Amino acid sequence: MTVNAAQLDASYGVRSTEATCWHQHSETTPTSSEEFELSQAGLGKRHLTMSRDMSHEEFIGLLQNEYPKMQGLKGGWLLYKATGGQGKRRLIMIPPDSDAYTGTLIRSATTAGKITLYISPLQHEFDLSPLPPDAIEFQSMPRAQCQTCNVSFPLQILALHVQECMESQAGSEDIEVDLSTEDSIQGLSDEILNCGYTGAISVQNKESIVRAIILHAVLRLQPMLEQLREGLQLYDLLLLMSHYPEICQPLFVPQEDAKLKNVGMEMTKMVHIPSHLPGFCSGSQAKVTSHFCL
The organism sits in which domain of life (predicted)? Predict the structure, then answer.
């Protein structure tokens, strides 16, 4: 698990903490693709609130509440912190004290919440299969509606669902559109590789290539959404919005009678319709995706 702490008012001895759960024991930080896979399995980033005097038992209860899969964890777990630098980094264990992991110890180990922590199971491995959209792990996460099947999905799993849903819809209507050729696809090799695809570049692997491009595009968008949430949380605006939704809604939705789900539908369009992808894709992503989806 990854825990990235952000400070609240020090006079209250409370920290707002960002957590991501590792599915198995690891000595390195997860890559962006691994983090996305973890989020689909309900082990992704969460915002926790920890007090300075929190006991080890209270800390475990907090984690189990945010990560229901941890209720079945066997074999123990340990906290780690990452070395400096970027990308995949080595993890350093933080040894528990006589009271195990307490709020005081975690605060000290994170330099009052300024570094990232990782909680890694020692002998247990969590299932990484994507969870259904109504799973308890996704209850408090932002959602958007699939325009094909009209089902609401958490943003973490919407991108892959949209691709699968489009394929299913096309199959049910006996529609098959394939304008790509071996010659034309080879001309896009550099763009495909820049989008993170590592397999063989061929028409037969078209679905895998498009999936990789969409995943890469969503990973570019996710940090922006996280920064927005952190900014709102820093000034307690999330609590204010939950108490006064009618007052706060016009701040984000221009129309007085608009529903928040309409915003989600517009976000879904960006993934569902290739022509909208350039809004958060690089030029390479948009070019390759448009080529396949014409």
Answer: Eukaryota
